[in-house]
Amino acid sequence: MRYRLIAVGGSRMKSAALRAACDDYLSRIRHYAKIEEREVKEARISSSEDSRLVALAREGEAWSSRELADLVGGWEMDGRDVTFIIGDANGLPADVLHRAERTWSLGPLTLPHELARVVVYEQLYRAHTIRRGEPYHRG
User: Fold this and answer.
1) 48-97 confidence digits (pLDDT tens)
2) Secondary structure string (H, E, C) spanning the chain
């Protein structure tokens, strides 16, 4: 099983600090799971891809860290790849939202997608530490 994060917008991350934070969490997550990151110009999802699609959108479900940990556990048991997709400044197209198996909201705030990427990585790392009873999560 592999995690993928697709960031729509096509440009490389401009903030060195946010890039460093992403790289730090990617390194941590790789102790538990395979993960890759893709930056694309347009939100296109292949219908032949068997990956579970999780779209990030303000209108989605708000999950606690423990709820995400439970989801991660189920996804690992299922063995299917999981693809998270973060839209650009205009959000995600309706067809991508419709194709998604789950829609995850990081909250009612509008976040720059570079910052949203950091939050997703941190929460995935946290979910793995919760599942293993490691001391990172104190909530």
Assistant:
1) 568 999 999 999 999 999 999 999 999 999 999 999 999 988 889 999 99
2) CEEEEEEECCCCCCCHHHHHHHHHHHHHHCCCCEEEEEEECCCCCCCCCCCEEEEEEEEEEECCHHHHHHHHHHHHHHCCCEEEEECECCECCHHHHHHCCEEEECCCCCCCHHHHHHHHHHHHHHHHHHHCCCCCCCC
- pTM comes to 0.92
Residue 113 to residue 87: CA distance in whole angstroms: 7
